[in-house]
Amino acid sequence: MPDVEFRWLGGHRGLESSIVPAEGYELDLLPLRSLRTVDLNKHVVLDPARLGASYPVALTKLTRWRPDAVFTTGGYTAIPVVTAAASLRIPSLMWEGNVFAGRSVRATARFANVLACSFEETAKALPGKCYVTGTPIRSFAGHDPASARAALGLEPDTPVMFVFGGSQAVRKLNRAVWTALLRIVESTTVIHMTGQPAYADALKAREALPTGWRGRYKPFPFLRAEMTDALIASDMLIGRAGSSTLAEASALGLPLVVVPYPHASAHQMANARLLAEAGAARIVADEDFDTGALLSAVELLHDDAHMATMHAAALSFARPGAAAAVAELVLALAEHAELPAAATIDRMSRAAT
Description:
This protein is α/β, with parallel strands linked by helices. It has two domains: about 5-135 and about 320-350, Glycogen Phosphorylase B (Rossmann fold, 3-Layer(aba) Sandwich); about 145-315, Glycogen Phosphorylase B (Rossmann fold, 3-Layer(aba) Sandwich). The protein is built from 15 helices and twelve strands. The protein has helices at about 15-20, 45-65, 80-85, 105-110, 120-125, 145-150, 170-185, 200-205, 225-235, 245-250, 265-280, 290-300, 305-315, 320-335, 340-350; strands at about 5-10, 25-30, 70, 90-95, 115, 130, 160-165, 190-195, 215-220, 235-240, 255-260, 280-285. A six-stranded parallel β-sheet has the order 9-8-7-10-11-12, sandwiched between helices. A four-stranded parallel β-sheet has the order 3-4-5-6, sandwiched between helices. Strand 11, helix 11 (about 265-280) and strand 12 (about 280-285) form a beta-alpha-beta unit. Helix 2 packs parallel to helix 3, helix 6 (about 145-150) packs across helix 9 and helix 7 crosses helix 12. The longest helix has 23 residues, at about 45-65.
């Protein structure tokens, strides 16, 4: 990998303000928010105004920086950035992680020089040449379940269920865990990412358990460095159907119980359906996820034959080399080199890291 300097251009509503600087990268913010509101409030009017104000800001910053290439994951923030890059003739790669491309991607895809996506179904629907790379994920090389469980203080032989809602509406999942917790820990360890506001309640729920079973409930307000160990230590994942969640579960062969986030044009339901149809996941609608659904997942976790089938199906979707494949495309753009063949990118994306 050549020596590369990174700049991050984001919005005001996303997680980038807390994550990007902590990783040592420079962050600049546009006037718009990273996520548009889904409620009827003042932001329905303000968001378009912020979007309009963000184009000249993006144009100014790109003019000053003169990057060799722009990489974007699409979404609301991408609109002013990709159009500004096109105006300045700066090559750009737009990547889409969902099966159904979002409105922002569909509106701006023609301004990008190269398109990439996670699923073959998406590539068929986008204009021009689109590479199937999978979703870039963290590397799991050098980690193993026994070491991961030891690092988290988990029992070595008890099946592990990991429950988290990503950044989207975790309250429903939290309530189901706490209601069923006593029955779950009879046979199962639960790693539970609660979100910061609910963490105090999770600690109370743990203290209410019998002393000998408290070690089987491991709540965390948020996971960063520990996320790798949490995923590797787990036997089943219960959560939303974001592209990164599904990609990391597939790379590890983790069976999934997916509770798709019901908003955002049902993108997550479409993502989850592909894995469910292949036998890698069980879908539970958001309105149906309750204590009963969670206890049913526990039963599934202890069904060795069914779990083995789901494990194999999950691995069939794995593209652990997606990050390397995307980087290869971005570097080709930055160096004004010939773009790799689609078959080359496909092989890179499927290769273990």
